[in-house]
Amino acid sequence: MFMVLLMVIAMSCDSKKGSFTDPRDGKVYETVTIGDQVWMAENLAYAPTSGNYWAFRDDTANVAIYGYMYDWLTAQDVCTPGWHLPDDDEWRKLSDFLGEDAGYKLKSTGTLEEGTGLWREPNSGSTNQTGFSALPAGRRNSNGVFGLLGTYGRWWSASDNISDYGRSYWVSNTSNRLHRDIFDKEMGLSVRCLMD
């Protein structure tokens, strides 16, 4: 019975990988199916014609690795047709499906110090079991200061909390969880699009 339970748990986190091409700029994105949701397996790197978005520390070389950061309002409409910015319920569905160790299952493995990844130590326990490949892209504060590269990955939700704050989700190098929070809508956070 115990072995059957372990097999069911292992199979419940199996993911299917795929890809799609953004018709707006021709960029190819990896995708991953987690439960019954299809997520982008990398941060969005689309440069919209309007709105606010930034490369980390305004260095476009960072876009190839971490994607762009968008303010909350720009994030609402930046996903390609057929995809959308996930709302609070959709993020919570992902978190509930993966359970208490969701952060470990979502984060890429290895550390900068070991030369095997982009996370700062400890990042222990991370397995990237889902193929979501969460990276520590940091954030851009509303005052224009960039920070937390290597320690946090943060993504906008389509849901807001109060007029100046949007809902977001994040993982860190020191935690096993997928955290839910609110941030100033003028901050720059990453975007992961979800298939419609």
Description:
- By secondary structure, the protein is an alpha+beta fold.
- It has one domain.
- 18% of the residues lie in helices and 28% in strands.
- The protein contains five helices and twelve strands.
- Strands 1-2-3 form a three-stranded antiparallel β-sheet, with no helix packed on it. The chain has a three-stranded antiparallel β-sheet with strand order 9-10-11, with no helix packed on it.
- The radius of gyration is 16 Å and the shape is globular.
Write the layout of secondary structure elements.
Blueprint lengths: L1 H11 L3 E6 L6 E7 L2 E4 L12 E2 L8 H4 L2 E2 L1 H4 L7 E2 L3 H11 L3 H5 L32 E2 L5 E2 L4 E11 L2 E8 L6 E6 L9 E2 L1
Antiparallel strand pairs: 1-2, 2-3, 4-5, 6-12, 7-8, 9-10, 10-11
User: Count of helices?
Assistant: 5
Kindly state the percentage of residues in helix.
10-25%
Q: What is the radius of gyration computed over CA atoms, rounded to a whole number of angstroms? A: 16 Å
Order of helices and strands: HEEEEHEHEHHEEEEEE
- Fraction of residues in β-strands: 25-35%
Give the mean pLDDT. Answer: 92
Shape descriptor reads globular
